[in-house]
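Tutorial sheet, problem 5. The two components below are modelled jointly, 357 residues in total.
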Amino acid sequence: MSVPSTFNSSAAAFFAGVKSAWTSVFFLVLMGTYIGIGALAHDFGLASWWLALSTLLVWAAPAQVILISALGAGAALFEIAIAVTLSAIRLFPMVVALLPLLRGKSTRLRDLLLPTHFTSVSMWVESLRLLPALPQEWRIAFCNGLSVGYMGTAVVAGFVGYYLAAGLPPLFAGTLLFLTPMSFLISTARNAHMMVDKVALVFGLVLGPVLTALHVDLDLMWTGVVGGTLAYLVHRLREAAT
Amino acid sequence: MNAVLTELWPYLILLLVGFLPNEIWRAFGLVLARGLNEDSEIVIWSRAVATAILAGVIAKLILFSTGALATIPLPVRVAAAVCGFLAYLVMRRSVFAGVAVGEAVLLLGGFLFAH
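Model answer (structure tokens):
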């Protein structure tokens, strides 16, 4: 969708961002994803308000899935923190790529705090696509509107999934719970542009359950470090061979 | 005091092991103006680590299910995941088609074979 290229006020730019969020493909993706995460949070015995707050504060679906499933399984807090932080490194280059689009001559650091916190895959992809066509002065407001639109959708969908899972018969609640692994499996495969990402996906799928079955301590951390590093080494060997 | 602490404990955990370890990378991005190139080796490695962790969690959710999903037998869950993934590959890499087929297989298998 295209957006008007100029606005009368920051508020107009903000609401154009919200509208843009609700008419983009990520609206449906976030609905499905967070209905699944809502069901997951219910299944693991967390409160619905806790989930809403985690969406506002963490705002990264993979980190939230790791957090909820690891807390529910009774993993050590130290291990959960490591797994979450390893899953979040990707946010760093995303923020670095986004900020030059938002920063103008008169931009203050505090104006960039919200867009920095809002940075996540959905917002990032749409911002990089839509912002270059907008005048610099309206970009931050538009970007904040876009993010609030996405975040609001995710919070509402989380509540919907949570209470659907609470009220539905087991077979249908199970189907809701299955949304998370199914959609993440496919979207992770879809985002795996390079061979190294595909290899890491396969190693993780195998190592995760194997280390769990063997009752290895800190299994999530080792799945990531061992699986990811092995995939990286495969990538280096292939590079060296060509 | 203890009752208050018990109430607040999940939220404290959310801040300490959910919010902070996640947000720190966004903060780094804001502070370090000159960043890493998307193609730099450390970024490629860190993405591989993150992908492997998420893949491990996905596989565990399917294989060692809890709650309502555990009432659907393991072979049905695995078959649904495989069918969904194949549908995604066949139907021009459509995430929607993959998820829809996976869910349909799970629902059908669950209906026929649920505990």
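Marking note: Chain B touches chain A through 75 residues (CB under 8 Å). Full credit if you identified this.
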